[in-house]
Amino acid sequence: MIPAVNIIAKPIGPVCNLNCTYCFYLEKEKLFGDKETFRMSDEVLETYIRQTIESQAAPTVEFIWQGGEPTLLGVDYFRKVVRLEQKYARGKTIMNAFQTNGVLIDDEWAKFFKENNFLVGVSLDGPEELHNRYRLTKNGQGTFHLVMRGIEFLKKHQVEFNTLTSVQRENAYHALEVYRFLKKEGSPYMQFIPIVERISEQPYEAGLNLLPPYAKASVSVTDWSVEPKQYGIFLSEIFDEWVRNDVGKYFIQIFDVALEAWYGMQPSICIFRETCGEALAIEHNGDLYSCDHYVFPENKLGNIMKVPLEKLVTSEQQIKFGNDKRDTLPKYCRECEYRFICNGGCPKDRIIKTPDGEDGLNYLCEGYKYFFGHIDLYMRFMANELRNQRPPANVMAWAREKDRGFPSLKVKPNDPCPCGSGKKYKQCCGRNLKR
Fold it and tell me: Which of 17, 68, 164, 221 has the highest CB neighbour count under 10 A?
């Protein structure tokens, strides 16, 4: 038996009905033959579902369906998925998460999601102009209205959904516009995923152009990748509005994970954990890879039709892959005050050098430091509320009081600042107040 792992299943492989500029997965078709049928067969599907349920000790097993674009397989394919899950459940609770571009969602899909309690994630990069910058159809047309139509079907059938927003070069400069739009459209759960990709001057192995961090080819960061500091500014601007008005109303993944870390817990998402290796990817043909972002020939663990899933997940290759995140962390990161939350970030983004010339610094380091420094006092307050069994949402009133210089406390200029920074009041929250 293995502990709970997250395996992103790609039953249609990299096939998609869109041609998003920044998509790193479309080119994975090159890993397979020209005559490849990109559809997980009934045999592979049943084997995957059975082995996943049987191999996990946890009472709840979650399946994550992605692509490519999984709706291209049709609703009946996922009705079959549910039947197989029920066949092998044996008393365990089965959960399903479904990531989609939303374009093909209609009444039938939405009704199916509702009846089977699927959590649906929809890719949405903000208002029309920002969304359509990179999220395009095969003939280069914007997809905004198609996605919004799909979301309306989800709302009609009261399907629980969240939004996944790719933070790229363009929308990173419009944080509040993006955030307020997502709130207006009724997204209670939001993920803001930074786009960072390296492109090679010469094709990599199997003809791939977007490369892993360990590739030695001549590469450059793509012009659609988010700028490091701007990612931190983007998150901070949203945080400032959220922490004063929206705590407990809207849930933003990176804010929740940050609170876990400030509370003393291990961050729950892989990019911020000390080690990784618990978020794998399975292709349509049964090939299992170390990670969704490491679908490269050298990161293939094997095929579940030949080697049991449990054996592949616990293989030396996968254990080393997960431990390398910790073991290759540069000294600069090991000594960083934010290591407890960051742990060097996602290994795929460790593509630059530290100030002292060591390899392996995260491309987003500057942005992460900006953001973590910005939220520190608020996170300390919320963590303290949790420890004292009080709601973290109390931070909203505290933040507004802080903005006014804590008038109810009648603080003197040389008193310690009530915000907990360790500075004198006149050098901190009282610095910019009119006397």
Answer: 68
Nearest to 239 by CA among 303, 286, 192, 301: 192
**E strand map for 326-411:** 352-353, 359-361
- The 10s digit of each residue's pLDDT in 292-343 is 999 999 999 999 999 999 999 999 999 999 999 999 999 999 999 999 999 9
Amino acid at 296: F
Is residue 412 within 8 Å of 292, Cβ to Cβ? no
- Position 419 confidence tier, pLDDT thresholds 50, 70, 90: confident
Residue 408 exposed, middle or buried by CB count within 10 Å (0-12, 13-18, 19+): exposed
Task: Write out the catalytic residue numbers.
Answer: 292
3 state SS of 251: strand
3 state DSSP class of 157: coil
Burial class (CB in 10 A: 0-12, 13-18, 19+), 413: exposed
Cβ 198 vs Cβ 351: under 8 Å: yes
CB count, 10 Å around CB of 406? 19
Listed range (31-35, 160-164, 187-191, 248-252) with the worst mean pLDDT: 31-35
How far is residue 357 from each of residues 294, 329, 353, 361, measured CA to CA in Å?
25, 13, 5, 10
- Distance in angstroms (rounded) separating the CA atoms of residues 207 and 262: 43
pTM of the predicted protein model: 0.94
DSSP state of 338: T
CB atoms within 10 A of CB 364: 28
Give the 3-state secondary structure of residue 310. helix
Task: Write down the number of H helices and E strands in the chain.
Answer: 14, 14
